[in-house]
Every structure is written in structure tokens, then in C-alpha cells.
Design a protein that fits this description.
eight-stranded parallel beta sheet, single chain, alpha/beta, 465 residues, eight-stranded antiparallel beta sheet
């Protein structure tokens, strides 16, 4: 397999570093906001690497075994996608020593860490662009970017006109990755942090570096340091071009998120849902399908609570789908406690550390789903097979060697009774199944497995040993 050996057994947790936990008050900026202040474009809340380190017990208890951190390198913004120095931890987050401490602590627990690599564009304070602002057309770095004309104005109001930037934001000048010096710099960054112990990269907007040779070389550089490093591309569309030996192991699976939410929110029928799932799964080689980063929330979309209108039963169904489909499930920090939030910046709220303010039902459900996935091999490596769809009720099977799991999701407001045909799967009459979610048992009789479901509920069935 070309994907990392550890990735299939992984459950990710995404952390927006400024908003997860403040573990070291001494590195807070003087104008730090109160922790639970509503997020805004400007304003640091004080989250840092020590905050993550001090809460590893919480993450381990939840069942998490890998972290994806939004950018942690020196930057003037809370989101840090406008990097100033790729070789320096932002002092508001901590130091290199604290990064090394975090890496050691994670690895001691058998946990992995991937970093956010923003290589399409930099911040205005990045040394090469700053040199251009100082020296204009005399700068030795003028070919590190695509300059349309001099003098370069990077600070007046309006879109970027003098140079190519990300979505015309003046604060995000786009690197010229055709320049061999730029490529060498980026590859050195990629190599350096893997050498420091990072277990992979999440690559920001990699489709905007539309250069197959760049990403093939990037992959080679990273894998020379760690053959088991995970490369994850932020590709929003379903596109097999971006996975495999020349690109990434997996993609941020936003198409799957849309399919799940449409089904759970009753926008599509069970048949339409399953058709879309089968179509999406068939696009990729199986090993890359197993390495997809499956998500329901992130720093770029509405939080799960808002996406499902605060309906706890539907939130639980969405997680049931997430943890039972092929790919690597990921939890966005705070979604597991019912944190609310609309579009950016509202989806980047500070984590609530008062358990009495958590939605305990959602938290316990996520914890249960993680535990079930870890112990049920078919949910990690099994083939996906459709069993039956009726209106807004879907049944499917995950099969791995001689092990099988049946998942059923009833997204309707009605009671359902399904009669699942077991003859074609070599499952004999008298075979007993137990619901891993509630301990009810069912028996195959006359070649059928009859299962009843409450409205807006699900079941996860395993053969009783």
C-alpha cells in the first residue's frame, strides 16, 4: 500500500490553535480577548501549544489518536494562513521547545500530528515579499511572486492589482512556484517539520498550485524523511486526479459531508443518498478511499450543530454515518460537545471547558462511535455494500474477510421495519445479531433479518459470537 500504514486506524481531531485551550498566560498578547468572547476577524483568544498539551488526557479519553492543527507558524492573524516565517512557531502559541514537547507527548501516547502547510501564498511580512516592498523592481526576490507592475502597493484599500494574490486579497500574495528558488524553499520547509517529528501535512488550496511535478517532488521530499507520512489535500470537489503516487494520500472529503448532511436533513431520499455514496467511493482506488479525511465540520464551514439545526438525534445520525463509512473520521474541535457556530469567524469559537455547558448526549455518542470504530475491523477496512433503501431509511453492510457489520439509518420521522435479505451473503438462519448502539438482538429467519427502528434513529448490528 502507498498510503501510511497507520492512517486506516486513525480518528482525527482538528484544532484551531488560538481557540482550543490557553495553557500559558505568559505568551498572550496584551490585548488578548476574554476566552468566551464571540470570535471576530481580529482578536486573539490566547490558545496555544501548552493548552493542547495539557488537555491530551481529554483527547485520549475521547478516543482521538491524531491531531490536525491549523497553521502554527509566525503570522499576524488568528488564522495564520498569511505566514511570515515558516521556520518559526508563532510566539503567541509557544516555542520550538514546546512544539517538541508536544510531539513527544503525542507519540508517547501513540498519537500522530499533521500540520497545515500554506504554500500557495504568504503574508505580506514574509521576507521575500517584504524585500519587494522595500526595494520594488530592484528586489532580488521580485520573481518569487507574479508582479504585474511596479511600484507595488500592498496596503491601500481595494483588491490587489499590482501582483497576483489569493482571491485578490492584498494580504495574501501568491508565490511563483515555477521559480526553482521558491520550490527549494518550500521543499526545505516540508522536510524540516517532518524531521522535527510531524507525521504529515495538510496542504492548503493545493489545486491553486496546479503543477503535477511540484506535488510529485513535494511528496518525494517528505517521504524521503518519513515513508509513513500522511499527505492530505484540501480539494473541495470529488476528483481522482489529486490522489496517488504523484499527489496526496487522501483529500478533505467535503463532498461526503454534503451527501451526509443532505440525507440527514431530509433533502434527498435514501436511494439518492446511497447512489451518491457509491458513485463517490467508486472514483478512487480503494486504499485512497480508506485514506480520505471524512469530516462534518471544519474552520471553513458552519458547525455541525448549525448545519443540522440543533437536532441532537440528527447530529447523532450524522456521526453514525461518518464513523461507519470508508475513510478516516475527523472531529472538529468543539463539535463533540455541541459548540455552535455559523460561517467564519463564528465557526472558530473558543472551546468551552465547563462540562456543565456541554451537550453530554452528543459527547457520549461521539465517544461511543469512536470506540466502536476502533474495535470493529469491518468499519475500518471493510468493503461497502448497499442492502436496502426505503424512502429515507438506508441499510448497508461493511464486510472484511468473515466479519460483517450492518448499519441502518432512519432519517425519517416515522417508525420503520426493514426485512433485510441475508441469503446472498451466506448468512444462515438462526444467526443472531446484536445492536452495538443499544444491545437489542435480532435473528435471521427465513433468510431475512427483520429490524425495527424508531424515528430519526439508527442501528449498528454485529453477529453475536
Amino acid at each position: 500500500m502507498t498510503i501510511p500504514s497507520w492512517i486506516i486506524d486513525t480518528v482525527f481531531y482538528q484544532i484551531f490553535p488560538d481557540r482550543f485551550a490557553n495553557g500559558d498566560l505568559s505568551n498572550d498578547p496584551p490585548n488578548v480577548l476574554e476566552w468566551n468572547t464571540p470570535p471576530r476577524i481580529h482578536g486573539f483568544h490566547g490558545g496555544d501549544l501548552q493548552g493542547i498539551l495539557k488537555n491530551l488526557d481529554y483527547l485520549s479519553d475521547l478516543g482521538i489518536n491524531a491531531l490536525y492543527l491549523n497553521p502554527i507558524f509566525l503570522s499576524p492573524s488568528t488564522h495564520r494562513y498569511n505566514t511570515v516565517d515558516y521556520f518559526q512557531i508563532d510566539p503567541r502559541l509557544g516555542s520550538m521547545a514546546e512544539f517538541s514537547q508536544l510531539v513527544r507527548a503525542l507519540h508517547d501516547r501513540g498519537m500522530k500530528l499533521i500540520l497545515d502547510g500554506v504554500f500557495n501564498h504568504t503574508g505580506r511580512g514574509f521576507f521575500a515579499f517584504n524585500d519587494i516592498l522595500e526595494n520594488q523592481d530592484h528586489s532580488p526576490y521580485k520573481d518569487w511572486y507574479t508582479i504585474h507592475h511596479f511600484p507595488v502597493d500592498a496596503f491601500s484599500a481595494g483588491d490587489a492589482e499590482d501582483y497576483l494574490s489569493w482571491w485578490k486579497y492584498k494580504s495574501l500574495p501568491k508565490l511563483n512556484t515555477r521559480n526553482p528558488h521558491v520550490r527549494r524553499y518550500i521543499f526545505n520547509v516540508a522536510r524540516f517539520w517532518i524531521e522535527q517529528g510531524a507525521d504529515g501535512w495538510r496542504l492548503d488550496v493545493p489545486n491553486e498550485i496546479d503543477d503535477d511535478t511540484f506535488w510529485a517532488e513535494f511528496r518525494q521530499v517528505v517521504r524521503q524523511v518519513n515513508q509513513d507520512a500522511y499527505l492530505l489535500g484540501e480539494i473541495w470537489e470529488a476528483d481522482p486526479r489529486w490522489v496517488g503516487e504523484g499527489h496526496f494520500d487522501g483529500l478533505m472529503n467535503y463532498p461526503l459531508r454534503s451527501i451526509i448532511l443532505d440525507f440527514i436533513n431530509q433533502k434527498i431520499t435514501a436511494k439518492e443518498y446511497t447512489d451518491k455514496l457509491v458513485s463517490l467511493l467508486s472514483l478512487y482506488p480503494q486504499e485512497n478511499g480508506f485514506a480520505m479525511y471524512n469530516l462534518l465540520g471544519s474552520h471553513d464551514v458552519d458547525r455541525l450543530w448549525n448545519s443540522i439545526g440543533g437536532d441532537v438525534n440528527r447530529i447523532k445520525l450524522a456521526y453514525l454515518a461518518l464513523f461507519t463509512l470508508p475513510g478516516v473520521p475527523a472531529v472538529y474541535y468543539g463539535d463533540e460537545i455541541g459548540l455552535t457556530g455559523g460561517k467564519d469567524p463564528d465557526c472558530r469559537k473558543a472551546f468551552t471547558w465547563q462540562p456543565d455547558r456541554w451537550n453530554k448526549e452528543v459527547h457520549e455518542w461521539v465517544k461511543k462511535m469512536i470506540a466502536i470504530r476502533k474495535t470493529q475491523e469491518p468499519l475500518k477496512r471493510g468493503d461497502f455494500q448497499r442492502l436496502q433503501e426505503e424512502d429515507r431509511c438506508q441499510a448497508f453492510m461493511r464486510s472484511s474477510q468473515d466479519q460483517r457489520i450492518i448499519g441502518i439509518i432512519n432519517a425519517s420521522r416515522d417508525f420503520r421495519e426493514l426485512h433485510l435479505d441475508m441469503d446472498g451473503y451466506g448468512i444462515n438462519d438462526g444467526t443472531n445479531w446484536i445492536d452495538l448502539l443499544g444491545n437489542d438482538t435480532w435473528r435471521v429467519e427465513g433468510g431475512k433479518l427483520t429490524v425495527r427502528l424508531q424515528p430519526i434513529s439508527g442501528r449498528l448490528l454485529a453477529v453475536v459470537s
